[in-house]
Fold these 2 entries.
Entry 1:
Amino acid sequence: MSTDLIHISINGKPFEVPKGARLIDVCRDKGFDIPSFCYYSDLALQASCRMCLVRIEKMPKLQTSCTITCTDGMAVTTQSEEIEKAQRAMTEFLLANHPLDCPVCDRGGECELQEMTFDWGGLEERFTEKKNYYAERYLSPMVANDPQRCILCKRCTRVCDEWMGEDAIEAGGRGAHTVIGTYLGWLDCSQCGNCIEVCPTGTLLDGTYRHQTRPWELAQTISTCNFCSDGCQMSLGSRGGELMRVVARDRYVNGLNGEFLCVKGRFAHPFVNHEDRIRTPLIRYKKGGKLIPTTWDEAIRRVAEGLDSVANQHGRNAVGVVGSPRLTNEALYVLHKFATELVGTDNYTTTDAFSLKSFFDNLGSPLATHRDIRYAKTIILIGGEPEELQPLTAKQMRQAVRNGGARLAIINSARIRLVEQATHFIHVRPGSEEAIVLALSDSANDSLAAQKAGIEVAQIDVLRQLIKDGPGDVVFMFGGEMSDAAQAIIARLGSTFNRDDVRFRLHPLPLFNNSIGAHDMGMMERGITAEQLLDSIGSQVKALYVAGGFLPQQLEGRADALSKLDFLVVQELFQNETTEFADVVLPAASYAEIDGTFTNNDGFVQRVRQSILPLHQAKSDWMITAQLAGELGVDFGYEMSASSVFREIGEKVPAYAGLRYPLIKDEQNPVQVKHQIRDEADTQSSLNSVRESVQELPNEGEKNYERREVGHELFKIGTLTDKVPQFHLLASGNPRPETTRVSPLYQITVDAKLKEAVGQ
Amino acid sequence: MQIKAIGCEPLQLRRVHLKNSRTLDVYRANGGYEALKKVLDGMSPDDVINEVKKSALRGRGGAGFPTGMKWSFVPKDSPKPKYVVCNADESEPGTFKDRYLMERDPHMLIEGMLIAAYALSSKTTYIYTRGEYRYLIDIMDVAIEEARAAGLVGNNILGTNFSCEIYTHTGAGAYICGEETALLSSLEGLRGHPRMKPPFPAVSGLYASPTVVNNVETLTAVPDIIKMGGEAYQKLGTEKSGGTKVWSVSGHVNEPGVYELPMGYDDMEKFIMEDCGGMLGGKKLKAVIPGGSSVYIMRASDIIGKDVRMDYEGLVAAGSSVGSGGFIVMDETVDIFESTKNLTEFYKHESCGWCTPCREGTDWLVKVFKRIASGNGRPEDAQLMLDLCDNIEGKSFCPLGDAAAWPIQSAIKRFPEDFRKHLSVNSES
Amino acid sequence: MSQPLTKIEPLYQPVDLDVSPATFSADVEAEIDRHLAKYPVRRSAILPLMFVVQRERGYLDPAGVLYLANRLGLRTTDIWEVATFYSMIYTEPIGKYHIQVCKTLSCKIRGAGAITEHCSRKLGIKPGETTEDGKFSLSEVECLGSCGTAPMFQLNFDYHENLTPEKVDQILDSLP
Ligand SMILES: Cc1cc2nc3c(=O)[nH]c(=O)nc-3n(C[C@H](O)[C@H](O)[C@H](O)COP(=O)(O)O)c2cc1C
Ligand code: SF4
Ligand code: FES
């Protein structure tokens, strides 16, 4: 859209607007209310609800403002008897076959049709005929459907196609008998639930929350998702200390994700109030014994003793400190401070599978925000699988290609689903992505790379050409499987190609909601992995202080490592492989119960807000660490307030310099932290090590052609999703129940067929 | 059933009564493919378009848009392939002319399409035929193969460097797929929903490429235009709408059928009462729907003694329009309430469901009609129906909504007594 | 802009139907190939192919839908959305002979109602129903473009025009 201005008049008032602006947006922007259902910005135009009618001079009939782009001298009327009659008529038509039993509708109170009827509805109902009837049903464990209430704005089918690239839900039938649905009525998709989110009526409903409560009974708290590194903004709806639902509906929140959430962000929240949450501190009085409930004072004293004695006997480095990348910046900062200043050990790290140290040490261009991605003109994705691991990033990429005409090149050894949207796909042999990175850094490596990756040199040239020519931002993305050395090279690609006519942006794809924060707070600075730390147990490390559990794959083959420890203390939500050997277990509070911040893969530091009070005796992780420090005789002096911790982060962490909670409170304008960008960096050693590892790759070998099933990562059962029955259904292939019909008040029934499929 | 020309030399119907009129030989023996020859030796695409412009040929599909102008909208410089699509979806109630043109004289359509393709430098053309006309698709396929064997279809037609393919495509039962943009959606394998205009098909149609959609009769008129020249063709008709028009006549006449008349044929009364053999069983004429169901219904009194001229202007002046030229003649036994109910059910069944007013409006109207028919009419129902029609008309996404409203509006206005009967009270109240 | 070097075919989403895709004889496959050859985009052949599958299998059963999805590189739901839009595509089993009486105005006023009633009485089914033995289905349909020869019905793909009850009897009785 060009930026030169043109003149139009709305209801007689003159305005200057950008050429080619969409009339409906302009009118609303200038304060003229225009009703609409089907219009949804950045989705394909539909012009089917006919609510947004306006009168435009010199045009026959009323026009749909959603389809009109402003031209110079256009004279628009948005309010007149004729227009109001038309709009009232459309509302009347929409209500004709729509049930008027709002009191039993799950959307009652937050239904756009209700609101529209309030403004445009008639006083008396003229439709006295029999309404068309369709039975309520479930489309999937997550999605309930009441076809009668559908007004066919087709937002759901459009987000499913345009955002998710799945096309899983469509309109079937014809005329007045059109219904939204799927073949055989079972929804086989990534269950993101965005169709529910964008549905203006009670047609598509959250199957997990349906009929649990009323929207107006919910306290809405704007917070940040605690699953992947995209950091979606969401609204936590709680009632009486219970987290009831999660939505992104932008009447509550309007973050970088708009109304987008993925299956985890939207549906995995029930873990918060799950009965298995650890309720009190627990002590194992002798190895192999049981964990016995105790008081906080007793537990803290015990931990202080335990760590103290190990440090005294075996030296400070015998005490290891580990923090989960799921924790808040506050928790990780205090943990880092505890490890370095109080214990003074060298053995501290995160449980992240993916260290960002070398990437940030060599950072040559700024991080790409999700907005940058949406409007980028060239996107290079090396490895990774955003549609499963960072769904919002994947959505932005799809829209960049579809709506922005971006060129998307995917370099991957697997045919990931995003390839459907890609303009270029370089299918390399398993594990040879780094060969392409090497080639990009220096064309001298082309033939080597091509040989090892099993592609033609020409493919690399095309790729290089993409980056060299064409206007607009260029974004490099890379997945977690990249080695530290490869990350260093990617971090410099901007300066390698060195064009001053376009902007280069980098977008790492770490796995956790606060992986970036964990790096920023210094927990990755030692450059040791959780595995290395575990392996040094016995030889060097004798005691571990773990905030938030190891990943199962990290403990694989190291099961007894933990048992060899003299002393193990764990802060956790649930008992798991790590707590099994713990001497002391401390109940931590979940993201819904605390204040803090996460830093996402845009480098945005975003607020986590307390939606419900900590359950049972749980405490926020940083408080526990601070209390422990106090017990060991050092007062960190935060007076139990997260904001004072963040203030200290603002003072001590350069990238966060000067930040305070009040400065980052607006989720609509997130603040990007200032990671240092280096003009110069020596990547020679990295290049060499990548070249070596590439040279070691075999010269031939099979490529991986297997189809990536939707949800093969998303539906994997983790500690948190394990607590949500619906995820077990998904994990076992989302089997179709014998009947999908439901009477309004029943939730989906796990019938025989389903039970056996799920193996219960 | 009659098939004949009245008041003019048969053009479109020239060959229909010949033996084996379907075959290439008969077609050629009677002037077939001469126009194509003429075009290929010596006429430039623009010459062709100019002739068609001069002929004042207006689209016979219903919209009556000047064909030459439509063709000239196609951007010459576009790098994309260009498509010509023949609209043989003929689903307008009361319309069946295209069917007989294709059944009796398939090569005339092929020649017309080839000339159109040449004029628009298109290499690929499709004939979208409604699914029910399966036997016509078979006829066309045979004819196309015949033509191909004779070097008239395919590569280097008649030894020139003009190449063009003609493919038949089948619909599957959806009136809306006659609407040109819906037809294109359907041809792309999607649900048959109309598309937003602009962009118009001429600019971005089939596969987002420049596309011209023309009715069968429009295309079959083209060979004669080329042969006799644009002016001559136009002179057969009126200044604004040239040539001849093929009308379908059905209902209560002794000789329903397909009649070719010069545009501007001077008397509609004579046409019904004499040319079509008069009213069935000598009953009295009550009403006529002259343009397929989607136009205003006419009272006998607006026809008898009013010498209504049969062309676009004439019929509009008489309070209706040409539409697709499907005459539905109704005698005194017909209850206009019933006939309107019947047509409204048609539109409800055929509404594609895309936009609110058409989808919900037609559904609502049918329910009201049914309630009234079941004896539960209310005095205010007539007003309600008029208001619903008003709320559909001009607000719907495509013209089908309007098409559903017009018959009801005109019927209630022009035959209040028939509605009054059912509403038991004066409907203008 | 440079062309993609690896041809990118859309992935389809096979639902876990407990059926495997339908299979067809070489001739039918050849016929299907002929249809596909007409269009630059595979999806365009969806209606012609549906008619073929319908002819071979009676209606669009899950196996047929799965076949179409694979053959056209679409998801089964894409097949469903199209199939349910068009009145001539059957997603439910239908009688061997489908009698479709035109009920629209021109036919109506020339006695379509009587024809429907006659068929109804003769076959003992109402419009929209199928006989026990699955031999006949009866429907009332909208204008078939045969108004000049009303009343009429379409029997499978064949037009029978200027009908009278006697004519209807002849036609139906002569069916194997
Ligand atoms: C609801 C609707 C149905 C239509 N049905 C047909 C049809 O069956 N056959 C046809 O030729 N045109 C039909 N049309 C007109 C087409 O949209 C289009 O105007 C025509 O095919 C253009 O060809 P022409 O310029 O040669 O008339 C229909 C239009 C509408 C709005
Ligand atoms: S149908 Fe259109 S007219 Fe209406 S709001 Fe939606 S997009 Fe605008
Ligand atoms: S109305 Fe019956 S075929 Fe036209």
Note: Residues B 93; C 102, 104-107, 143-147, 150, 152 surround FE2/S2 (inorganic) cluster (ligand 3) (CB under 6 Å).
Entry 2:
Amino acid sequence: MSISKEEVLKVANLARLELSSEETESMTEQLATILGYVDKLGEVDCQDVEPTTHVLAINNAFRADEVKKSLSQEEALANAPLANGEAFVVPRII
Amino acid sequence: MELSSLTIHEVQELLARGEASSVEVTEAVYARMAAVEPKVAAYITENRDEALAQAAQADERRAAGTGGALCGVPLAIKDVICTKGLRTTAGSRILENFVPPYDATVMEKLKGAGAVCLGKVSMDEFAMGSGNENCAFGTPHNPWNLDYICGGSSGGSAAAVAADECLAALGSDTGGSIRQPASHCGMVGLKPTYGRVSRFGLLAFASSLDQIGPITKDVTDAALLLQALAGYDPRDSTSARVETPDYSQALVEGLAGLTVGVPAEYFGAGLDPEVEKVVRHGIATLQDAGAQVREVSLPHTEYGVAAYYIIAPAEASSNLARYDGVRYGRRDMDADSLVDLYRRSRSQGFGDEVKRRILIGTYALSSGYYDAYYKKASQVRTLIVEDYKDAFRQCDVLVSPVTPTPAWKIGDKVSDPLSVYLSDLLTIPANLAGVPGMSVPCGFSSAGLPIGIQLQASHFSEAILLRVAYTLEKRLGVVGKKPAL
């Protein structure tokens, strides 16, 4: 399956990535090569085969709902590029 | 004798006899780093002051009789594992200044056992790569030949162990990232069963495939480290509730009663003749040690790479959505809208390979393509799992090459991502099926580059891998050889 430049730009937007025009060119070419290879999966008959998303037979891993020690506000904010001492700061949304 | 050249268990003997202190061993390793790091470039961040303090504390504990199983043993940690208070970059610009506020479970376990953390070692950005050439902070060099890659993504881990810049290291393996660099650097690499070792605090690449494991100078050290790392962790919802056996019991030479399966598909077109020769010699050695050898088939092996390059990027595209410039990591300070902030911060912070995989994953999961790509790949994954089940009805361990070729020259494959992806075709299936895999030094190419042999066993059968590996180590005489640096 081939992929067009427009599709690459659309996917980049979904993934919140900006691509320069050079990057768009090279990514389109490389993605087409990789997806072309992946088309190999079409050779395999998967009728009635259940998909595997996890290899171990673990279902819901429940635990008791208990309050435990977690990060302090200060620790949680320590790596933030922009914070006001109480919260993460982002550009105005509304 | 250089203290830095020793294995963990050799150092433990010296420490136990009082013939060396942990501070002396740690200082010897830093002296070695000062001498060879300009050539090898295995480390991203050194932790000297803290490590020497940990070593001094370990010496006190040992004197007081309260030292743990790894008391005073200096280790290197792949820079994708969170270390409290010590910068953790995942080899990415986007995390250039990230200092984790907590330790990964494996770090808590190592520290609890008394280990010393020497520093954080190089890797492909977010563990995406096979040559460690995708690291934002430079490419490490193979200690056996500095013009060659050390492998990836745990390249810094393998290079540091091979160059005696640590006693052993932790790596992580999503599609071969422990086994392949261990093979290329002539070291022992062990990827445990999915769920055996907690992933809490491992920066996630592909959550259904990632596992942490050791890269060591010999098989005994691999058993020692696995012992320290393994076990159920309530903080990792995919951690397995299984007992951890005593792995030292597995370190016995001799394979009577064991059946070795040789998968025909792992010896197909594209296999370098020198690699095949070395691995066939390894298989003959197993036979001499009493193993039954039989050919087996894993017919869907050739589809592993294609399935992997949908599943891993799909999971990565979701996992890496968290790098948004808000809570941690690089942020473009000039963005004037939230979407702009995300776009610019991510575009500046991520390297090409990471962008490539995010795009593939996002595409494969996007509306209209999900069934054709992600669902199909997940169905093929089921067939690969079934292949292993069939094979392990006929044998106890699978033996094969780790990689189709020895290490390649730095720069040779940078413009051809698909050829790099294809080089992982023999290590990827173990991750898709969650089975444990191991790389053990087996020989050398005519150019003097190390060649490993891969062992795979059924879920939670690491003890079988260790027994086979230990027998190979004793009989081949390849483990323990050192590069001339």
Note: Chain B has 15 helices and eleven strands.
